[in-house]
Give the backbone structure.
Amino acid sequence: MTSGYKTLELKNISLIRKILNSEMFYNYKHNLPGMIGSIIFVATILIAVVGPFFMPQNPYNLVDISLTNSYMPPVWEQGGSSQFLLGTDGQGRDILSAIVYGSRLSLFISIIAMLLSCAIGILAGLISGYYGGKIDSILMRITDIQLSFPATLLAIFIMTVFGRGVDKVIIALVLVGWVRYARTVRGEALREKTKEYAEASKTIGLFNRTIMLKHILPNTLTPVVVLSTIQVGTFILTEATLSFLGVGVEITKPSLGLLVKNGFDVMFSGSWWISVFPGLYIMIIVFGINLLGDFLRDELNPKLK
């Protein structure tokens, strides 16, 4: 038993050493935008996971909020309070707490939608690229039709059909996002299936499912990693847009888009902080994700080296 733990520990140490000595890690250490992007993304995840435990209130618990604290400005302005660093909204909710709780929901929706889009798109792209023929024609015509519509407009239409809700937003994002994975993986699969290792796998009698999943799929994942990273940021923006327009999550749920919407109506009356700070946080998150995505694209695409 002890020897098994030692073997596992040695393997982990060996893996860590390989990562630290790899060319990609060396380039990462010398790529300031990539480092900034990864720091922002990791910090955003940590804030969303552990941040609520350190916030002064739960902004969506009626017991914790009071109308007597409504429309308090940030702490550095006259009338501000150290209890509410970024001010409060019309219901007395702490804006900083609302941002942290809202980022948790926005990230949850975006990451789950990305994973589901990725799974569906990879499966569709593999089947389309490997088998070709009528299956390929049908799937690609579906993607062509869908890509002819603006993604946000299509998401709004889907939400008007299904109604508001977290699960409905995830469904809308998945229906909008799977096509890019499908087209990307399909192009890679078309190229990989003509290579010698794929032809050799057919010759020795391996099942098509085995060839696709064990041989072709691993060689198509490089662009998928880049696309997945960038799409998290895209989904955050789309979810915020849907919630801002009133067709996203329920009004009782914390969401960065809803925070921007709630503050927009009173922004020009002087209570600018209610909308500006959540909007800035969305911008910072998406900016960091895009920086990280650009670094991964440059590193994982040999044509750009």
The chain has a mean pLDDT of 81.
